[in-house]
Amino acid sequence: MNEEFDYDLTPSQWETLKALRSPALLLPRMSRYTIDGLIALELATMNGDAPAITAKGRKVLIRGSSLLLQDLAA
Fold it and tell me: Is residue 53 part of a domain?
């Protein structure tokens, strides 16, 4: 099974996805609109009152990290 992990995320979505790697106690204040967008893409979920990154979100973040670096180098 080959899943596609290429997403056209906004800079704020990328930053939020990166921030979700931190423990819930250390999460900065995040835009609910951005969180809802990530939840709709199944890249994040709500764990009680706190957002959390999903396994799919981690894969997208890892895959996207190299793409983001290429964009910075260009």
Answer: yes
